[in-house]
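QA checklist item 7 of 12: single-chain prediction sanity check.
[x] sequence parsed
[x] length recorded as 270
[x] structure emitted
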Amino acid sequence: MRFNTNPLPGMNPWLESCWGDIHTKLTTYACDVMQQQLPPDLQARVEEYLSVFESEEDSATSRRIAPDVQIVEQPGMSATAMAVATDEFRSSESVIIRRRASPQTLRYIKIVDVKSNRRVVTAIEFISLANKATEKGRQQYFAKQSELISAGVNLVEVDCLRAGGWVMAAQKDGYPLHMQGPYRISVVRATSTEDAEICRATFRAPLPTVRVPLRETDKDIELPLQLILNSAYENGRYGNDVDYSVMPDPVLDSKDFEWISNYLEKIDSD
């Protein structure tokens, strides 16, 4: 079964393996949607930052996060040659090793006040695997997260990836169990940094329209997550690529895969 439009009510797990493209589209579309709602003296901008990724384990997740890993040829004995002929140096032998990955360019949205020296009012982050798959990546993201909140910036976080550790500003044990996954959304307002507004995100129901805070005197604006996700699916022509008979990467729980399969069969037959 293939669908030209996103066939699921909410998040589409098959898009997680294409997150580089989806992340870029979501960031751009979200910026455009919010720009139209901002007061004249606020501007939404897509900003870039680097995240140095070093894999902690040789896993499919690690390779997907850092696809630009290079290999080098180094004269000397391979492990096999060493075991077979430890007394003979073979200068023509080479080994292939994994190099440190190049820094990844990540993107987030910041809303700035043009009349107050372009002070950052709100930051919107679509979490990437580089933010959450390794301890180093998580620590880098936590440092950025802490810096924004300490500076009095509203922080909106959208995590639509099942892989990796917990990086939301709101602690996991503060979430009701049914809202901890598979995806999650958090809003920390500058006026109340001890609290977080959380939303559940799943593939069984539409992603929420998030209320994005600005300055204290401004009304919240809206970020329609389902709308921009569906646009990313259609504009990326994922209907040509996604095969829903094949388990996505990362794999789903068998009950979830069964639910999706039954749901897709039903809408396909209608």
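[x] summary fact logged: Strands lie at 42-51, 71-75, 94-98, 104-113, 119-126, 154-159, 183-188, 197-201, 209-212, 221-224.
[ ] second reviewer sign-off
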